[in-house]
Amino acid sequence: MRLSELLERSEYSVISGNTDTEITGISRDNRKAAPGDLFICTTGARFDTHDTAVMEKLAEAGVRAFITEKETCCPAGTAVIRVENTRKAGAEVYAAWYGHPAEKLTVIGITGSKGKTTTTHMLADILKAGGHTVGTVGTNGAIIGGEVHELSNTTPESNEVQMYLRKMVDAGCDAAVLEVSSQGMKQHRVDGFTFDYGIWMNIQEGDHVGPNEHETFEDYIYCKAQLLQHSKLAFVHRDDPFTDRLMEHVTVPVEWFGGTERADYRATDIEKTFDEEEEQPGIAFKVSGKTSFDCWINFPGDFNVWNALAAICVADHMGVQPEAVNRALANVHIKGRDDIVYKGPKFSVCVDFAHNGASTWHHLKALREFRPKRLVCVFGADGNRSKGRRYGMGEAAGKLADFSIVTSGHNRWETFEQILADTEVGLFKAEHPNYIAIKNRKEAIRYAIENAEEGDLITIIGLGHETWQEEMGVKYEHSDTEFVKQVLRENNLI
Question: All domains of the chain, ordered by start, with CATH?
Answer without folding.
Answer: 3-97 (3.40.1390.10), 101-329 (3.40.1190.10), 339-490 (3.90.190.20)
